Amino acid sequence: MNFLNLAETNTPLFAELEEAASKVIRSGCYLHGPETKAFEEELAAQCGARFAIGVSNGLDALRLIVRGYLELGKLQKGDAVMVAANTYIATVIPITEFGLVPVFVEPDPDTMNFSWHEALRIITDNDDLESPLDIRCAIVTHLYGTPCWDRHIADEMRNRGILIVEDNAQSIGAKAAEVGFNGVAFTGNLADAAAFSFYPTKNVGALGDAGAVVTNDPILASTVSALANYGTDYRYHNLYAGFNCRLDELQAAMLRVKLRHLGDEIARRNEIAEIYSREIENRMVTLPRVFQDMTQVWHQYVILIPEDKRDILREYLASHEVPTDVHYPAPPYLQPCYEAEYNPGFETLSVRLAKSCISLPIANVSPEQAREVARIINDFNL
C-alpha cells in the first residue's frame, strides 16, 4: 500500500491525459490559449461563480488576491489578517510578504478548522483595546476537505468591512451546510474570493504546479488577471508592477480532464472515509467528525491519538505496511521564519493537534485495504 502514488492515481485517466497533452503540443499554443480559457470557464461553473483565473500555483493565487486588494485600496500595509493557526504555511506567507499582520485563530476542536467563534471573540476583544489592530481580512482554510463556514458570523464580519478569503486548496467540490455570500454552498465561492491549488497531490491535481483564483467580483478578477501577467491589461501596457503567474496550456488541459472526474473522486474518497469511520473502534483513537449536512471531500483522513502514542502507532502501522503522514507537524507560527515574532509562548490547541494527528492513506486505497487498515488499528494496544 502507498500513502499516495500519483502514477496509480492517474492510470485510469492516461488515455484522456495523453490525448489532451497531444492536442496542446500539436496546437503550437502553449500560453493564453483555448485550454486555459475553457478550464477557467469550467472551474467557474463548477463553483457557481462568475470568474476563475488560472494561475501558476496555490500560493500565487493567495498572493494575487492579497496584492489585488492592496492595489484596489481594500487593504493597506499594517492591516491585520486573521488566519487559521493550524493551516499550512502557504496561507500565511502572502500576509507577511505584503506587510500585513497575521492574527492566528485557533481551530474549532470539533472540525479542526478555523474557529469562527474564536475569530469573533478576537474581533470583539480588539474593539476594547487602547491601540486596536485594524482587522480588515480573514483567510479561512477548508482544511482536509471539510468546509469551514458560518454564515451568521461571516455576515457580521462583512458588516464590519472585513474581507473573507477562502483557502480552498484542499476542498474543491466540497459543499457547506449554508450558502455563502453568492447564493451557493460550494467552497471556493462562499465568500469574497478564493484561492485554489492544483498541486499534483490534490484531489484535482495537475501534472505539475497550477492554481486558480475564483471570485464574483469583476474588478478583483480583472486586477488579478493583470497582476498575474506582469500587471498588463493589454499588450505592452502595464497597470501594475506585477508577476509572472500564468497557467500554461498543458496544465490547463490536464486539469480539464481531472475536473471532469471530480465527482467520481469525491465519491471514492467518501467511500473510504465511511469505512474508516464505521470500522475503526480503537478507544485511543479519535476519528474526524463526519457531517451529514455538508459534503466533505476528504483530501486527508486525519485521526488523533494521545501525543505519547502517536509515533508508536505510526511505527506499528508501518510494520504492517500501512504508510501514514502528519499534516502538519507544527503550526506556521512555530516555523523558524515566524517563531521569533509570533510564538505565543504557551501550548495552544493547534500545537496539541500537531502533536497528535496522523493522516491515514485515502488517495489510493481500495475498500478492502481500508477495512484491513481499520482492523490493524483496532488491534493496536499498549
Low-confidence segments, ≥5 residues, pLDDT <50? none
Average predicted local confidence, pLDDT: 97
Helix content: 25-40%
Profile the largest sheet: 7 strands, mixed
User: Which value, in Å, is the CA radius of gyration?
Assistant: 21 Å
Strand-residue proportion: 5-15%
What general outline do the C-alpha atoms trace? globular
Q: Please give the number of β-strands.
A: 11
Order of SSEs: HHHEHEHEHEHEEEHEEHHEHHHEH
Strand order of the largest sheet: 1-7-6-5-4-2-3
Taking the alpha carbons of the first and last residues, their distance comes to 25 Å
Structural class: alpha/beta
Give a quick rundown of the structure.
By secondary structure, the protein is an alpha/beta fold. It has helices spanning 6-10, 14-27, 34-47, 58-71, 93-97, 116-127, 151-159, 218-227, 249-260, 262-279, 307-319, 339-342, 349-356, 367-379, and strands at residues 51-55, 80-84, 101-105, 135-141, 163-167, 193-197, 211-215, 232-234, 237-238, 301-304, 357-360. Strand 4, helix 7 (151-159) and strand 5 form a beta-alpha-beta unit.
